Amino acid sequence: MRGELDVDWQEVRAQFPVTEEYVFLDLANKCALPVFSVATIQDYIQKQQRFGGDKSEWFATLEEARARFAQLINAHPDEIAFTKNTSEALNIAANCLPLRAGDTVLINEHEHPNNVYCWLNLERNGVKVKWIPTEGGQVTIEALEQVLDDTTRVVSISSTTYAPGNRNDIKRIVEFCRARGIYTVVDAVQSVGTLQVDVQDWGADVLCTSGHKSLFCPHGVGMLYVRREMLDRMPPVYVARAGMGMAAQIEYNSITYELDQVHSARKFEIGNYNYLGITVLNSSLKYLLALGMNQVEARLLSLHEYLSNWLQEAGFAVISPGTESLRSAILCFRAENAHDLHSYLMENKVITTVRRDMIRVSLGIYNNEADIDLFIELLRKWNPKAQGSTETA
Ligand SMILES: Cc1ncc(COP(=O)(O)O)c(C=O)c1O
Q1: What is the model's pLDDT at position 386?
Q2: Positions in the chain short of pLDDT 50
Q3: What does residue 24 show for φ and ψ, rounded to 5 degrees?
Q4: What structural domains and CATH numbers belong to the chain?
C-alpha cells in the first residue's frame, strides 16, 4: 500500500486542463476529460481515420479494461460485462434476476430515478415495488425489517446516493438479505472511482456503474458485475455472439448455431462494443490503480471535511452526513434560492449541480484546498451573513 505522501496531487491536477479555468465540483454529474483520456481518444480516432483501426487491438484493450475494472472492485473478469451505462446495467439486473408474479422489490426514495423505473416496469409481470422508509437516504436494518415480508426477493440500493451523497452500509445490508434469501443489487456509480469498492467484502449479487463520471470516459460506457454464483440464475434477455462459446470464430467458418452460452457475464454483452469508450476506460483505470484507491478516497474525504467544516461554521445546512464512515465525495447543502446560487457560481466559473433543491458539490482527484477556498469566498459574497461566523441562518 502506498503512503499518502507518494501521490503528487499537483501533478494529478495538471492532467486536468479544466482546473486552469474552472473550479470543477461536478464529477457526480459528468467528468471534465483529463489529458490522458484525450490523448487516448486522439490516438484511437487517428488510427480509425488512417486505416479503419485494428479490431484485434480493440479486443485486447477491452479485455485489459475488463481485468482492470475487476481489479478496481476486487472481482474476477468473468464477473464483469460492459454495458452502455448504469441504467442499462440496472435494467439487466431487473429483467434477468429470477422474479415471479407476487415477488416484491424494495427500493427507497433516495435512489436515482433509473433505479426506480426499471423495477416499476416489472409491475406488468406482477412484481411489486415497496418503499423502504429512510432518513436522508440512509437505509437501516430496522427500516428493512419494517417493510420486508416473505414475498421480498430483491433490495436495490445505492452504495452512495446521488444526493445527499451518504454511503450505505452495503456489507451489513447484504448479510441481512442473504440470510433471508433476498438478492441485492447495488447502484455504485457514485462510489466507483472515488471510494474503495470491494465486491467480495460487500458480497452483493449485482453491481452497476458507468464510466462517464469518476472514470473519466466519454458517455456510453457502463459496467455490470454479477457475482459468479448468480450467473446461472440470470439468463440474459438479449443474446448475441459475445455471449456464445463460439465467439472466437471471427470468420464464421465453423459456426454451429448452438445456444452455447458462456458461463461469464459476457453473456449480457450485445454486438459491437463502444471500443473507443472502453479504450479510454482502460487508460483511466490504469491511472487510478496506479494512484491507489485508498489514496484517492482519503484525499477526497479530507477535502470533503475541509468544506463541510466551513459550511457548518458558516451556518449552512449541510445535509450530507457528518459521520466519516458515511461520507463520500459528494457534499450537499441547502441554501436559499439554490438555483440562483448555482447560476451565480457558474457565472464565476464554479461548476456544481442542484439536486433535490440542494447545492451538490462533488469532488475529484484534481480538486485542492484552493478550489474550496475560492468556492467559500464566493459563498461569502453571495451571503454576506456567512462571514465564517456561526450567526447565519
Ligand atoms: C446514483 C445514480 N444512479 C444511476 C445514474 C444514471 O447513470 P447512467 O446515466 O450512467 O445510466 C446516476 C446518474 O447520475 C446516478 O447518480
Answers
A1: 44
A2: 1-2, 384, 386-393
A3: -95, 110
A4: 4-32+292-386 (3.90.1150.10), 38-289 (3.40.640.10)
